[in-house]
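Customer escalation, tier 2.

The customer says the design service returned an amino acid string that "doesn't look like it belongs to this structure." They asked us to rerun it and document both sides in this ticket. The original structure tokens are below, unchanged.
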């Protein structure tokens, strides 16, 4: 396990908010008729090969929740499993490393059915430990101290795990599913775009706001 990766989790609360912004950013041809006969001596016509678009790589994910009461970090690579844990505080299948986290905390990796068939570390474990690097799109979150830290590039999340801070951010207060503050990590390039609309949309797709319960109409006065 890479010790530098783990130091960032302990220092998550030290995210530099001085660079944050609340709702601001730092920041043809036509086809000829076919001939009835091929001209003498002419080369045969070979149809051009159809171009095949490269297959888009699936999105890689890493979600981390710190349970302060239990002194455990719950880590997920499956968004659905992550959502179940957020809703129930429970995960049925896990791969645990007791005392292997920062300051003697434990690392609990949530497992889905596919993970149970693997012989060795799960993709989320490899990603968390820095053993692999996503080659396609990435989306990750860290939930700690009542705040969501959102990352839409792997490098930004890797830097956070190493350094424990996010120099450039875009912050929205009270927009989490339970009123939490949501902090979007930026870098010099992504900050140029201003508000990270795609990341915000991705966050709310994963955490849809629940409609407030309807209040009963007051009883008429006698």
């Amino acid at each position: 396990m890479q010790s530098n990766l783990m130091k960032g989790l302990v220092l998550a609360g030290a995210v530099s908010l001085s660079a944050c912004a609340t709702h601001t950013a730092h920041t043809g041809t036509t086809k000829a008729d076919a001939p009835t006969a091929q001209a003498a001596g002419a080369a045969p016509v070979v149809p051009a090969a159809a171009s095949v678009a490269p297959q888009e790589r699936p999105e890689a994910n890493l979600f981390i929740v710190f349970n302060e009461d239990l002194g455990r970090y719950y880590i997920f690579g499956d968004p659905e499993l992550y959502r179940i844990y957020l809703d129930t505080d429970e995960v049925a299948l896990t791969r645990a490393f007791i005392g292997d986290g920062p300051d003697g905390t434990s690392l609990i990796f949530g497992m889905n059915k596919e993970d149970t068939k693997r012989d060795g570390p799960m993709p989320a474990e490899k990603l968390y430990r820095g053993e692999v690097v996503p080659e396609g799109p990435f989306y990750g979150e860290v939930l700690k101290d009542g705040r969501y830290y959102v990352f839409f590039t792997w490098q930004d999340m890797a830097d956070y795990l190493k350094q424990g801070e996010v120099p450039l951010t875009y912050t929205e207060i009270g927009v989490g599913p339970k009123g939490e503050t949501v902090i979007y990590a930026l870098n010099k390039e992504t900050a140029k775009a201003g508000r990270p609309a795609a990341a915000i949309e991705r966050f709310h797709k994963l955490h849809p706001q629940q409609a407030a319960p309807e209040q009963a109409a007051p009883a008429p006065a006698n």
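Tier 2 assessment: The sequence is consistent with the input. The two ends are 71 Å apart (CA to CA). Residues 3-23+58-206 form one domain. Sent an explanation to the customer and offered a walkthrough call.
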